[in-house]
Design brief:
Its main location: membrane. By secondary structure, the protein is of the alpha/beta class. It has 20 helices and 10 strands. The chain folds into 2 domains: about 350 residues, ABC transporter transmembrane region fold, CATH 1.20.1560; about 240 residues, P-loop containing nucleotide triphosphate hydrolases (Rossmann fold). Helix content is about 60%, strand content about 10%. It has a 6-stranded mixed β-sheet. Helix 3 runs antiparallel to helix 10. The structure holds adenosine-5'-triphosphate. Adenosine-5'-triphosphate (ATP) binds next to strand 1, strand 2 and helix 11.
Length: about 625
């Protein structure tokens, strides 16, 4: 119920449209059975040769004073001994009015429904975009996409087309019921026996469907995860020749989805035949009673026929209620994961009066920094009491065995994660007291993975800075040694690259990413050296571009190359989350046995000796 009210909260901005939409659909609901009720006067007055006069009574069995004739609603010129004209006018006028109200009411309700869904989807996307890095580690991409697409779609169906149909049907139901009672008199009370039966069966079916839908949605998410992994990681699948294995995995997941869908269909489709049987038994019974009523003169034939048709009409919305109920339950089921995402508090938040970071002047200080990742199995302590200063203009290399916590340490600087204990300060200001935007503006990060968007070269370089002049983009590309190959591309800077665009070599991708970092012009640069090598020519171009990028910046680099640690002002050794040595290459060779071992294993072992002058780093620029 809480979720229902939360959804209703999204309708508030569209209250006016919803209000008028509901009123118009209420009119439709009234006109619909009234039109059918015309069968009574048609049989009793228009088609009855013995009927005289121009009075066409519409609703029998109403208390005295409530009686009204159709003539009252028809222009006076049509009166006279002309019941046909009165009924024909009423029929056409009602139909036209119903059509207009139906059209505008459906439009207004859908307007509100689609409007609220657009807001909900935007809100969800905004929340996901603003989530911390840990959110994306905890939730697989396919599951997030499934919620954003499939779950939102289910809610959308329920609050747009199904809702307007539901409103129309509920009003039709109410007014038809009133007319059935008016025509049926004593007879109509027989109906009430069936109401609880219908409601109970609909509720029972709906409740099961909610659970089933959740399972169905989970199965869709499972398929989306497999799709995402195997399509983005297609090269790995090919390299390991695991196509068949992946196809079988996909088929198994598809079969689970099929089973979930069929279970849900079985439950849903039982409701219609069940109610059909109930209704036909009721009608058969009523014909028998009706015959006696007509014979006893308590009912007219026209009245009874109108009553029967209205009864059929009443049965229509009742039958649809199970479908509406199912659809709303499905939407409620789908809204669980939407609201789960909306309720996640980002781990990294800005304090209310955060300060803007001014120019970076002096140093970044890690003071007794401890960090633990939290996951389902509990906490995993990765960094322990790290004390470190990175001075302005310094090139600080970070080395250590795999899993030592190097990436974790550098990810704390742009606040992808917050420290668990201690603090990190820039020029004396705790990172948590600064605005995230101003902090991240000061940092360009370059990771092993190069991410390019499906956009033009220019927009990829100017990512996050759409208004920057073309000349500056080209200047950055020149410094990144990317201008020449960009100019050789079919549309130069307007060539679309990225997932679906023009194919680039590894080195070219890296240089585009370096250009992006150069254009960002952040004073602090975080690099993560790639362990895989490029060919010699590409390598030297990338390293020259990198040298340009590093110029005049404070650089923290996770080093895998000897040349990098040689160039570094200082090198930090990180082992199992603790700093076990700081110094220059020569100092550490003398003092640190770990460094000596790393030197032999990692640096000499890669075949990268001092003869290779500069680091090779794959790039992902920008924050
Ligand atoms: N998002 C995460 N959630 C939970 N644990 C993580 C996460 N990222 C890393 N870890 C764990 O933290 C430890 C340190 O990882 P980290 O990536 O910082 O090491 P690293 O020194 O950079 O290693 P490498 O050189 O191999 O990249 C590892 O044990 C890793 O399993």
């Amino acid at each position: 119920m809480k979720r229902f009210f939360r959804l209703i909260g999204y309708v508030v901005p569209y209250a006016l449209q919803s209000f008028f939409g509901v009123i118009l659909l209420a009119i439709v609901g009234l006109l619909d059975p009234l039109r059918i009720a015309l069968v009574g006067p048609i049989l009793n007055t228009v088609l009855n040769p013995s009927a005289k006069g121009d009075k066409v009574p519409l609703l029998p069995n109403l208390p005295a004073g409530w009686h009204f004739d159709l003539n009252q609603f028809v222009p006076a010129q049509m009166h006279g001994d002309n019941a046909w004209a009165v009924v024909a006018f009423a029929l056409i006028a009602m139909t036209v009015l119903k059509g207009i109200c139906d059209y505008s009411g459906t439009y207004l309700v859908n307007y509100a429904g689609f409007g609220m869904i657009t807001d909900l989807r935007n809100h969800l996307y905004e929340t996901i975009m603003r989530s911390s890095a840990s959110f994306f580690h905890k939730h697989p991409t396919g599951t997030i996409l499934s919620t954003l697409i499939n779950d939102v779609e289910r809610v959308q169906t329920a609050v747009s087309s199904v809702l307007s149909e539901f409103l129309q049907q509920i009003f039709t139901f109410i007014f038809t019921l009133a007319l059935v009672i008016s025509y049926g008199g004593r007879l109509s009370w027989a109906l009430l026996i069936f109401v609880p039966v219908v409601i109970t069966s609909a509720r029972k079916i709906g409740g099961t469907v909610r659970v089933r839908t959740r399972t169905g949605q989970d199965r869709v998410a499972e398929i989306q995860n497999i799709l995402h992994e195997t399509i983005t990681g297609n090269r790995i699948v090919k390299a390991f020749s695991t196509e068949l294995w992946e196809i079988l995995r996909f088929k198994k997941a598809a079969r689970r989805l099929l089973r979930a869908n069929l279970r849900s269909v079985r439950i849903q489709s039982i409701s219609s035949p069940l109610m059909d049987v109930i209704a036909s038994v009721a009608i058969a019974l009523l014909i028998w009673i009706g015959r006696n009523e007509i014979l006893a003169g308590r009912m007219t034939v026209g009245g009874f026929i109108a009553f029967l048709i209205l009864l059929f009409k009443l049965y229509d919305p009742v039958r649809k209620f199970a479908f509406f109920y199912n659809s709303f339950q499905q939407a409620m089921g789908a809204s669980v994961s939407i609201f789960n995402y909306l309720d996640i508090e980002p781990d990294v938040q800005e304090i209310s009066r955060a300060k803007t970071l001014g120019d970076f002047r002096d140093r970044i200080a890690f003071e007794h920094v401890g960090f633990a990742y939290s996951n389902e199995d509990g906490e995993q302590q990765v960094l322990h009491d790290v004390n470190l200063e990175v001075r302005r203009g310094e090139l600080l290399a970070l080395v250590g065995p795999s899993g030592a916590g190097k990436s974790t340490l550098v990810n704390l600087v742009p606040r992808f994660y917050d420290v668990s204990s201690g603090r990190i300060a820039i020029d004396g200001a705790d990172l948590r007291d600064l605005t995230l935007a101003s902090l991240r503006q000061h940092i360009a990060q370059v990771t092993q993975e190069t991410i390019l968007f499906n956009d033009t070269v220019r927009n990829n370089i100017a990512y996050g800075q759409p208004d920057i002049p073309k000349a500056e983009v080209e200047q950055a590309a020149r410094h990144a040694l990317a201008h020449d190959f960009i100019m050789r591309m079919p549309q130069g800077y307007d060539t679309v690259i990225g997932e679906k665009g023009f194919r680039l070599s590894g080195g070219e991708r890296q240089r585009i990413a370096i250009a992006r970092a150069i254009l960002k012009n952040a004073p602090i640069l975080i690099l993560d050296e790639a362990t895989s090598a490029l060919d010699t020519e590409s390598e030297s171009l990338v390293q020259a571009a990198l040298s340009n990028l590093m110029q005049g910046r404070t650089v923290v680099v996770i080093a895998h190359r000897l040349s990098t640690v040689r160039r570094a002002t200082r090198t930090v050794i990180l082992e199992s989350g603790r700093i076990t040595g700081i110094g220059t290459h020569e100092e550490l060779l003398q003092t640190s046995p770990t460094y000596q071992r790393l030197y032999e294993l990692q640096f000499l072992g890669t075949g990268m000796d001092g003869a290779i002058p500069d680091p090779i780093v794959t790039m992902e620029a920008g924050l």
